[in-house]
Amino acid sequence: MRHVPRALEKQVKRAAAGFPAVVVTGPRRAGKTWLLRRMFPGAGYYLLEDPDIVARLRADPQGFLDGVKTPAILDEVQNVPEVFAHVRSRIDRRPRRSGQWLLTGSQEAPLMQGVSESMAGRAAVLQLLPLSTRETPRVTLLHGGYPEALARPSVARLWFSSYVQTYLERDVRAVTNVRDLATFRRFLALLAARHGQTLNKSDLAAPLGVSVPTIAEWLGVLETTAQILIVPPYFENLGKRLVKSPKVYYADSGLACHLLGVETAAELAKSPFRGPLFEGFIAAEIVKAQVNAGLRREIYFFRDEQGLEVDFVVPRRRSLLWLVECKAGRTVTPAMAAPLRRLAEAFKKQRRAGTRVEMFLVHEALQGGMQTSAVAPGVKALPWRDFLNTF
Length: 391
Prior knowledge:
Layout: H1 9-18, E1 21-25, H2 32-39, E2 44-47, H3 51-59, H4 61-66, E3 72-75, H5 83-93, E4 101-105, H6 108-118, E5 123-127, H7 147-151, H8 156-175, H9 181-193, H10 201-208, H11 212-224, E6 228-231, E7 247-250, H12 253-260, H13 265-270, H14 274-292, E8 300-303, E9 309-316, E10 320-327, H15 334-350, E11 356-363, E12 373-376, E13 379-383, H16 384-388
Parallel strand pairs: 1-4, 1-5, 2-3, 3-4, 10-11, 11-13
Antiparallel strand pairs: 6-7, 8-9, 9-10, 12-13
Helix pairs in contact: 9-12, 10-11
């Protein structure tokens, strides 16, 4: 899987041409190091997890950086956050030299704190997420998008088990003081069982025997390290009483399947979580498309107290809104399109002139090779790969 070009490369090139430093963040093992080393083969490489490099950098940062020939890749810089101040001073000496410092980090909260305090205006910050379906057809609902899991699908379950262990022992403890890792593991599994549901912190806290503030802190850790997606409710007033709680998904469907004990395609087909997993998979792919294109992350869901619900509302360019309903199956019916049409009608009545709405019913591939169908006026029924290729 290491030969797959990444969709973020265009944004990295633009950033390196316009800023002295480029910071690439994202979850551990998403491919940040491989991306920068592939794009800048002549750059020096320094792993700030190497004990020798860390010791030298902390003992004599100026001396260490004097020996660094730019452009240089400083990998996992969150391990030595004090390096930002020294890099900043070197940038300020030669501010017009672009693309000299290429930094990666897996823990966004500490990393972003260092960037905001030391590198404001000097660094472009980009996020690399796991592989998307547009980057490789190997990305699936069962295996997700982490490169190493896709490279060896036969041992993907073992890889995810090791990933969770590494994540618990390194990233989580580095971001917050989790004293009881066993309870945190139970929290991860419990959250997987709530995949695609509206977030209820009390509902998570009670079976674990922890406080609601603890759950809030743990959710913050997962969101900060790009392990979960928090999808807020659509906020615009349509003359309806709207649900205010966000929905929560694991950002990688392969990790979600692992935490739910779903190991094979046959198990996935029969799983009661198949629908929420498919919904979260589409949400993650939408976010990947936005991030890779350098767009702001914007995805919402709609639900009112009268029971009208649509999976996703996605703002697009030129006053266009996409309404998206996800169905984990190959059979589509007019009844499935009814919520889309009801919400579109509400937008038509309430929103200002010039705003357009497009409606999509996203599903698995239809039998007989049919790629597109109209199940109701104005509603496009598309197999999920075709839908995602429209971004």
